[in-house]
UniProtKB/TrEMBL annotation:
Species annotation: Calditerricola satsumensis
Protein name per its UniProtKB record: Uncharacterized protein
Length: 53
């Protein structure tokens, strides 16, 4: 489980694009970005499917 290095919260949103990846903390009084987070293993195999349009 991911833990925010700033506030210790465990609720985060994984964000990635071609330049940046990491977890965005969802704690309302934090909201910081942890660029050291890695993609969860179950999402790292193959390309993630895109959500339906
Ligand atoms: Zn946080």
């Amino acid at each position: 489980m991911w833990t925010c290095p700033h506030c210790g919260g465990t609720r985060g949103f994984f964000f990635s694009d071609e330049n940046l990846q990491g977890m965005l903390c969802l704690a309302p009084d934090c909201g910081r970005f942890d660029a050291t987070a890695v993609l969860p293993a179950h999402e790292a195999s193959g390309d993630a499917p895109l959500p339906p349009q």
